[in-house]
Every structure is written in C-alpha cells, then in structure tokens.
Amino acid sequence: xxxxxxxxxxxxxxxxxxxxxxxxxxxxxxxxxxxxxxxxxxxxxxxxxxxxxxxxxxxxxxxxxxxxxxxxxxxxxxxxxxxxxxxxxxxxxxxxxxxxxxxxxxxxxxxxxxxxxxxxxxxxxxxxxxxxxxxxxxxxxxxxxxxxxxxxxxxxxxxxxxxxxxxxxxxxxxxxxxxxxxxxxxxxxxxxxxxxxxxxxxxxxxxxxxxxxxxxxxxxxxxxxxxxxxxxxxxxxxxxxxxxxxxxxxxxxxxxxxxxxxxxxxxxxxxxxxxxxxx
Amino acid sequence: xxxxxxxxxxxxxxxxxxxxxxxxxxxxxxxxxxxxxxxxxxxxxxxxxxxxxxxxxxxxxxxxxxxxxxxxxxxxxxxxxxxxxxxxxxxxxxxxxxxxxxxxxxxxxxxxxxxxxxxxxxxxxxxxxxxxxxxxxxxxxxxxxxxxxxxxxxxxxxxxxxxxxxxxxxxxxxxxxxxxxxxxxxxxxxxxxxxxxxxxxxxxxxxxxxxxxxxxxxxxxxxxxxxxxxxxxxxxxxxxxxxxxxxxxxxxxxxxxxxxxxxxxxxxxxxxxxxxxxxxxxxxxxxxxxxxxxxxxxxxxxxxxxxxxxxxxxxxxxxxxxxxxxxxxxxxxxxxxxxxxxxxxxxxxxxxxxxxxxxxxxxxxxxxxxxxxxxxxxxxxxxxxxxxxxxxxxxxxxxxxxxxxxxxxxxxxxxxxxxxxxxxxxxxxxxxxxxxxxxxxxxxxxxxxxxxxxxxxxxxxxx
Lengths: 279, 463
Description:
The complex is a heterodimer. Chain A is of the alpha/beta class. Chain A folds into two domains: 4-89, Translation factors (Elongation Factor Tu (Ef-tu), domain 3, Beta Barrel), CATH 2.40.30.10; 100-257, Rossmann fold (3-Layer(aba) Sandwich), CATH 3.40.50.80. Helix content of chain A is 30%, strand content 30%. Chain A has helices at 22-27, 68-75, 110-122, 142-148, 168-176, 190-200, 236-239, 250-257, 261-278; strands at 4-9, 14-20, 33-37, 45-53, 58-64, 84-89, 100-106, 126-133, 151-156, 163-164, 183-187, 207-210, 226-229, 232-235, 242-244. Chain A has a seven-stranded mixed sheet, with helices on both faces. In chain A, α6 (190-200) links the parallel β11 (183-187) and β12. In chain A, α5 (168-176) packs parallel to α6. Chain A is globular, with a radius of gyration of 18 Å. Chain B has three domains: 17-129, Fumarate Reductase Iron-sulfur Protein, Chain B, domain 2 (Orthogonal Bundle), CATH 1.10.1060; 143-238 and 395-462, FAD/NAD(P)-binding domain (3-Layer(bba) Sandwich); 240-393, FAD/NAD(P)-binding domain. Chain B is built from 17 helices and 16 strands. A five-stranded parallel sheet of chain B has the order 3-2-1-4-16. Chain B has a five-stranded parallel sheet with strand order 6-14-7-8-9. The A-B interface holds A 23-24, 26-27, 37, 41-44, 68-69, 72, 83-89, 216-217, 219-224, 226-228, 233, 235, 238, 252, 255-256, 258-260, 263-264, 266-267, 270-271 and B 172-174, 182, 210-213, 216-218, 236-240, 242, 244, 248-252, 254-255, 257-258, 261-262, 266-267, 270-279, 349, 396-398.
C-alpha cells in the first residue's frame, strides 16, 4: 500500500507526489487532507489533498520541505512506499450554489487552492484565481491554474514575475471596481490569509480561509489543532479546516503555528546529522 | 489447604522512584512464581465469592487463585482468559481497589488478596512460557466490522473471533490499541504487551485495518452495505475538554491527549523519534484522574524539575487509581489540592503560570463526590511554562455526523441499550463512545456484552 506512483519537483523546495491510496482517492473532495508518515518512526504530517483519481486510486500531495519529517518524505523515490496514509480527513470545501468565486492562493498554499478552483470550474462556476509568490523561482502550478480559471492574476513580492506586490492588490482592485463575488476562498500563509480577510471585510463578501494548524491524529482526539473562531474554540480537524475568515483569530493562529518551533529545530538537526552519516 | 494468614499483600517489586522518574521502563516489575503462589494462598475461598461480583467481566477469581496456589499457572491463565480478553492489560490498569479487591473478605482485616497483581502474573507467565494456543476456531462465514481498536473494540473482536466470526477491526491511527497505545504510558503498560495481545487476536483470524478513518474513508452505512452484517462502534472518547479560561490557547497549554499521544504513540522521548514534545522546567497538570497522573509522570520523565497536579477537590476525591497516585507522589509529583485554575498567565504568547482560586468542599454531588466551591477572596499563582489539561473528553462528532439514523444523547454520546444495541439495526456500540470517559475494564466489558448480542442477533437471522 501507499506506493509512490509519481514524483516531480515543482521548484527547488516544493515536490509533487502521487501516492497509491484507493480508499482515500474514492472519497476525497477538494479541501480535505490526509495524515501520512514517511517511515515507521516518522512524524504524522497533515497535508491537504492536491488532487485524486478514483479510478487509478492515486492521491496527489504537494509539499514544501520545511523540517525533518518533510525532508524524510522528500527522500522517498518512485516505487517506494510510505508507512501510512490516512484520509480523507476534514470537511470538504463547500461549493454548493456558488456562481462566481475568487480563489486566492499564496506560495505552497496554491497547491491546495488549485483543487478548489478545479472543482468550482468543473461545476460551471466563474473562477477568478489570484496567486502570489515571493519570487519567480517559487512560482508553481501556473498552467494548471490558467486551465481552470476564467481570469488569472499572478503576483510576486519582488516583481520578478507577474504583478509586483501581494495578492491583496489585484483582489482589492477587483472589489473596488465593483466585482461581486459570491465568495472569496483563501489558502496560503496565515499572514496572507489575515490580510485577505481584512481586504474583503469592507465589501462584506463572504470569505473562507483554509486553516492548516499543527495536528497529530486529525480525527478529533488530540486538540492540538484548536483555534478561536468568532470567540469560540474550534478544532480544525473535525470542525474545519475551512472557517469564516472574518471570524478567525489569525494572530493567535500565527502564534500557535510556531509552538513547537524550538523543539522542531532539534529534531531537524538530528535528522540532518543522521543523513550526514549516510552520505 | 490452609490459607496463608499473612495480613498484608506481598509488596509489588518496583523500580526505585529516584531511578524510574528518569526512564520510561515499567515501574512495577511483577511477582515471581514463589511470591505469586504465596499470595494466591491468602485467598480464603469464601462461599459467597464477593470478588467475582466486583469484577466488571465476572472473572472466576477464586478458581484462578486456587490454580495459582497450586502452581498451575497455565490453568490459572485459562480461567481468566475465559472471561477477559486482555488479562495482561487489565492486571496492570484496572482500579482493583474499587472492584474485585474492594469486596475481598481478607480486606476486612488487613489487606485484600492482590488479585490484580496475580492476574498480571498469570498473563505474563503465559506470554513468557508461550503456553499452548487453542486451535483457531472454525469460521461461521459471518462478517463483523469493529470500529476502533481500543479495549472495547479488542474485547468485542476477540470474543466474536473465538465464536467463529470473520472480524475486521478498523483503526484511524497507524497502530492498533487505541488508548492502550496512545494514552497509557510505557512505564505503566509496556507497548510490547499490547502488541502481543493484538498479535493473539490476529492468530484468531482477526484482520486489522489501520489508517482507516470510519466516517470519512468509509461510512457505517457503507460497511453494512459492503457485507458486514454487524458493526460495533468502539470509537472511544473524543475531543479534549478545556476550561474556557483566559490564556488557554497560549503556546504551552496542551490537552493531556496531545501530550500523551506525542509521548506514547509517537515515542517523542526516544532520540530517533521525529515528533517534538513540549519540554518545560515546570509543568502544571489540571485534573485528578489516571490521565492526569500519566501526564504528570511523563513530564517528570521528560525532564521537568517541578510537576504539579492541580485538582479542585481533595485527595480523597481523586478519581485516579490509588497505586498511580502513590507512584506519582513517590516520584516527586507535587499535589495542589482544592485549587481551581481561573486564568493561564502568559508572556509573549507562551505560558508563564497558572492563576488559581482555593476551593472548599460542600455536599456530595450526583457522582457521590463532595462538590467543590470557591473560597471567597482566595487565590494564588503557580509559576509554570507548560499547562496540561486532563479534564476528560466530549464525544467525537465524526461518526455521528456521517451516520444518519444513529441516535446520540443530548451530550453527543452514542445511545446504546445494556446489550450494546444502538438505534440502527446491525449497529452496536460500547466503551467511552457510549459512557464518556471511563476505564479500560468497563470498555472491555461493554465490548464483550456487545459481542454476545451480535452473536445472538446474527444466529437469530440464520434460523
């Protein structure tokens, strides 16, 4: 089980893999995630599903190498197997009745935004995609977005590709110009989603953020993924991962996302040392 | 034979507190054969057998003690195995002082017979000596799905497999055992024992499907449609409870489930584990149950210098197993009784301490424990860099939300009758998913009861 069927680099830091997981592929919808472990003693990593094929049983994941666990995952080759791959977890993104949507993705979050845009497009919804990256070398999935969007806006922080600046600029321009979206769906770094929520608030357009907090079991047991939404405690794994972006306490979520940073760097250090020995 | 009239139990050999607080190896080392025989000889074999009534699964305690007293260890094991699916587990984690041993006649003058320790001895001995396994049962061709591989699920699966059913156990995590592997620490229940118990079930023909999230990958309805004639839901307790006080989402506030899962399931204490765990000099654990004791003792082993148990009632009211409280105390856990947290103090988004009020005890409440109330104008601060909430859980909504027609209580627990039957035909439930947080043995009992009901109902169908 869980054989790696395909693997490709989207850029120097981001990898796309297709994993054989028929049980997940049969049910997965845009917005849901999996929890995987690369190896027997590996960490449980939650990753949003980037795409799936119920017929072949393949599930696509896109990840950025950020720590020991994703490093170990990235070491795996086509034909090798992952230790575990459980899902689909979380609630699918709600797409019912939507006619005109702006999908706003940032960085590796675009990998998660793409299946949402794809699903909306397939349902006949008008899709405006706004995707942002730090710099040209980090741009991923441009063609894929173009093929499922009625309009595509691409930004880079340093202006090396597309429009200079962040995703809020084209979004605000559209809203100011009188565009009426049924919904804005935003997926990306917490800071970006916070600013997207701020940008849409004055226009009273419903805005949904896909949250990806730390979690362990992903089934409503550990409480690690809790966040505050509209003053209430919510668990991303069973109540989300999508929430009303105007109600999410992003500052708290940003703090919580760094909770294990001091302990993780230890683990990463250990991992690198492990590989040093091998090489 | 004359009973051994020694008034006290034979003491359990343990790792010394100063040593064990620095390792995750098992604390209680177990009786040797000689001690076990001598302890078993303390049983008076009284006519009314009150101990058996105190056992949630009705083990024939005097019978297995008689075998032990004569050195017939494998026979003793077989007596236990008739009623218990997980003897090596229950011998270690049952609250015997509130069950079998509470009613032991020897307890009226002196200490009761150490039934739990002897159960453990018989089970361990059987595992070590590799006692003869009964031949795999003849299959009856009926398929049953068990959802969750904790004590309820394992017990249900075991009894059904023994009766010839083709059982598949679905587990959402990567390892079978439920709370026995993610919750109860290695030093109290070695994972090797859980592994051997699940291996035993595999030999009986039980199939384990890990990484299988029922309610998501497959629904209960799909299981029934796919040819499972009955489904047992042993999904366990659910979402961790928090207090709803200020500062609770600060970094360094964890549910006991999270802390224990990182430590036990993910083995964060081992150097080759990739999973990080919170390490702090001062750790405050809020709650007084076994889970609180487990979290506190893990914190010591992960290097904390001060570990506090903050509990709103008094020592007498602690719901934890007596032995766990004693072990925690010996290891250096500091108890703050009659104290209730009202705020988590933070600094730069991280925990800096716990603000508490003092409590006093009033009249007994519905659970029979004296209910605490705030002492006016009292309060103190406890410096800590980590706060662990061990306050129990509220039901997991996953199955309920994806199973139309499954009745749940207003609090969200699955409704099941005393035989484990739910509102849906062919669907049974038991354990914490039905009762809320309880014990391993009660969950196991519920699993066994449901197995019996499933067997009867499916046999009825044959006729």
